[in-house]
């Protein structure tokens, strides 16, 4: 049968009542997550996947701006797990942020961990996912954060008839644990996925998938809010709806100046809120997503996932087409199409939604992000020339410690990490040149953090390199949103490029795709004490070591200091 979302009158009333209730006051909301193996059938075969509450995608959390969420996580699976609340700043509370061996040790099989998720100024769409190995391939779900009407705010756009999370993910026929273990064993690129999915379904263009294609039923002449979330493990995606333009109104739980577009480019980790006007003749139209991949010589899943947008025809005698139109999507490696979309994002920056871009910078940092190689320990690796693929930031390939960094920092345990992550690249060369000497390919390995003073104003220039395989890198920072004040191609020019920064209405994001052989500049105020992870959200790059962590020191006074740990943390 179809996977159908219909929006009849009684559901519209329910949506209005739910929105009114959720937006009435800040509350403490309780959820239970049971992590367990569940059989699912896709692409003509059945396998067990890791799920939360048996659902794929997992449950959507509906909350209000400023709420606090208590989630009791029970791990009934055979693997360790952690859960991260992607884009939630967690003010002064890194203990529930979730990345394994950064802010906690994993929740072991048979154990329980109660996580406290503190919302602050987030408003719009975020998501949650596993943050251990590659479990997030199936352990993920949406977080819908409604405006707080009690404080005089509401949507800065026409109130939608209904809102619908649209989650893009990947599906492997193999167990994702097998894919991960083989990837680790060979030292090469991982096996590509067998399909992309929209809300858990591959769609018409894949075998054994037509009857379960996700289907959104809409009424003509209405406005719908689509909450787009890319949870894919490995790929940036392009998305469009046939014969319909979309109006972008938000990204990463922050409102944007609205603009119309024919397609969306969305990175892993990113959320984009769009308005869909159902202004076409009643019929069926494909929604479709496929890969954007800029790396040369790297395999990728070149399939297309589809869902159906179906107009509610009612008594109309119109027969839906047997082959609905597919939307136009840019070519898979069209770099300009990617940056032309992301470059249009601007903060709303008005009286109701002000922004606070740091102007006087006290900590200027430049981080290179590179794909590298390491020597193979036993001559069994399948990377370039028998090497093991790696990745780095500022030429350091991050190694996860055996005890979480947060615990070591809070309890002053030595030997777990170093605090010498460099402020600038230790090796300076023509980062984006076509032919680079091979000796530059090998990074150092280490567990280094960057210590930042409380309330300092930070600028980071993320500089892509052409080492081994130049490509886009969607970089995510935990504990903060940041203003993307500039980006460009080639090597960052410290004298010229800051002159073109947008300090008026830059977008506020938590994930930014550094363009292939280019750079992106971000700014934030370090007013959230704790240990906060920064990493590429392409999981192969994260696993290879394109990561680091910040320690933001405590400030003066109790409101500027990290909260104490909960009574129970998972043991290491």
From TrEMBL:
Residues 35-148, 163-312, 421-555 form the Plastocyanin-like domain. It is found in: Secreted, Extracellular space, Apoplast. Keywords: Apoplast, Copper, Glycoprotein, Lignin degradation, Metal-binding, Oxidoreductase, Repeat, Secreted. GO terms for molecular function: copper ion binding; hydroquinone:oxygen oxidoreductase activity. GO terms for biological process: lignin catabolic process. Binds 4 Cu cations per monomer. GO terms for cellular component: apoplast. Its EC number is 1.10.3.2. Pfam families: Cu-oxidase, Cu-oxidase_2, Cu-oxidase_3. It comes from the Eukaryota. The keyword Secreted applies. PROSITE patterns: MULTICOPPER_OXIDASE1 (PS00079), MULTICOPPER_OXIDASE2 (PS00080). It catalyses: 4 hydroquinone + O2 = 4 benzosemiquinone + 2 H2O. It is an enzyme of class 1 (oxidoreductase). Its cofactor is Cu cation. Gene3D superfamilies: Cupredoxins - blue copper proteins (2.60.40.420). Lignin degradation and detoxification of lignin-derived products. Belongs to the multicopper oxidase family. This is Laccase. It comes from Dipteronia sinensis.
């Amino acid at each position: 049968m179809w996977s159908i979302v219909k929006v009849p009158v009684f559901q519209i009333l329910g949506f209005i009542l739910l929105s009114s209730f959720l937006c009435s006051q800040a509350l403490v909301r309780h959820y239970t997550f049971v992590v367990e193996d569940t059989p699912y059938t896709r692409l003509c075969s059945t396998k067990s996947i890791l799920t939360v509450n048996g659902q794929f995608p997992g449950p959507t959390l509906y909350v209000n701006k400023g709420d606090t969420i208590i989630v009791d996580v029970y791990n009934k699976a055979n693997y360790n797990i952690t859960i991260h609340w992607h884009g939630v700043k967690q003010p002064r509370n890194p203990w529930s942020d979730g990345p394994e061996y950064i802010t906690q040790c994993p929740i072991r099989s048979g154990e329980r961990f109660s996580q406290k998720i503190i919302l602050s100024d987030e408003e719009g769409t975020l998501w949650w996912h596993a943050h251990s190995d590659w479990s997030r391939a199936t352990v993920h779900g949406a977080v819908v954060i409604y405006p707080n009407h009690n404080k005089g705010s509401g949507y800065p756009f026409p109130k939608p008839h209904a809102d619908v999370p649209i989650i893009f993910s990947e599906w492997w026929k193999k167990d994702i644990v097998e894919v991960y273990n083989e990837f680790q064993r060979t030292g090469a690129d991982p096996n590509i996925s067998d399909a992309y999915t929209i809300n858990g379904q591959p769609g018409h263009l894949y075998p054994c998938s037509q009857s379960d294609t996700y289907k959104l039923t809409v009424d003509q002449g209405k406005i719908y809010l689509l909450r787009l979330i890319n949870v894919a493990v490995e790929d940036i995606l392009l998305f469009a709806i046939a014969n319909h333009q979309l109006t972008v109104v938000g990204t990463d739980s922050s409102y944007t100046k609205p603009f119309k577009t024919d397609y969306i480019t969305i990175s892993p980790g990113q959320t984009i809120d769009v308005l869909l006007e159902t202004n076409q003749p009643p019929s069926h139209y494909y929604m479709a997503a496929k890969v954007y991949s800029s790396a040369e010589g790297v395999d990728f899943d070149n399939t297309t996932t589809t869902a159906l947008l179906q107009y509610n025809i009612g008594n109309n005698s119109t027969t839906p087409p047997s082959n609905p139109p597919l939307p136009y999507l840019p070519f898979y490696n069209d770099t300009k199409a990617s940056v032309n979309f992301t470059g249009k994002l601007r903060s709303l920056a008005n009286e109701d939604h002000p922004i606070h871009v740091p102007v006087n910078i006290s900590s200027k940092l430049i981080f290179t992000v590179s794909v590298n190689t390491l020597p193979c320990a036993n001559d069994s690796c399948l990377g370039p020339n028998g090497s093991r693929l790696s990745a780095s930031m500022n030429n350091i390939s991050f190694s996860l410690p055996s005890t979480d960094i947060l615990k070591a920092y809070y309890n002053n345990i030595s030997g777990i990490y170093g605090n010498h992550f460099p402020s600038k690249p230790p090796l300076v060369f023509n980062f984006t040149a076509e032919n680079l000497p091979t000796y530059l390919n090998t990074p150092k390995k280490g567990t280094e953090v960057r210590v930042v003073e409380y309330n300092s104003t930070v600028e980071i220039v993320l500089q892509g390199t052409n080492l081994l395989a130049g490509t886009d890198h969607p970089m995510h920072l935990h504990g903060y949103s940041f203003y993307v004040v500039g980006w460009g191609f080639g090597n960052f020019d410290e004298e010229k490029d800051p002159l073109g920064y947008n300090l008026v209405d830059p977008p506020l994001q938590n994930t930014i795709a550094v363009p292939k052989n280019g750079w992106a500049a971000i700014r934030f105020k370090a007013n959230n004490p704790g240990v906060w992870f920064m990493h590429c959200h392409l999981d192969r790059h994260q696993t290879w070591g394109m990561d680091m962590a910040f320690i933001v020191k405590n400030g003066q006074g109790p409101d500027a200091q990290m909260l104490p740990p909960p009574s129970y943390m998972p043991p290491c």
